[in-house]
Amino acid sequence: PDLILHNVCLDALAAGALWQKALATIPLITCTKILPDEVSYNTAIHACSGDGLWQIASQLLHKLQDDGLQPDKISHSSHARSCELGGQWERCLRLVAATQEQRISL
Which of 2, 26, 28, 64 has the highest CB neighbour count under 10 A? Predict the structure, then answer.
């Protein structure tokens, strides 16, 4: 399987609100010697946003950067959404301010 197939699987899991299975897919991608890309991480972050899993979304955003990838507006807006739904409105405001400083439009 290739990265596109993995990302489609991630998207289907995220759409089905199966965030735990979506998160479990990220390490499986790496086991196949295929590295996750921005789409992989964005989809996993998005899967967390619906349930307000801001801590996991934050970890994924950091992992994306640790892997040498650049977060984009999808990464940041999904992360901010997870903070909002997780009751972390102050963190959400800080994220929005930080993205504005970085000139990333949400």
Answer: 64
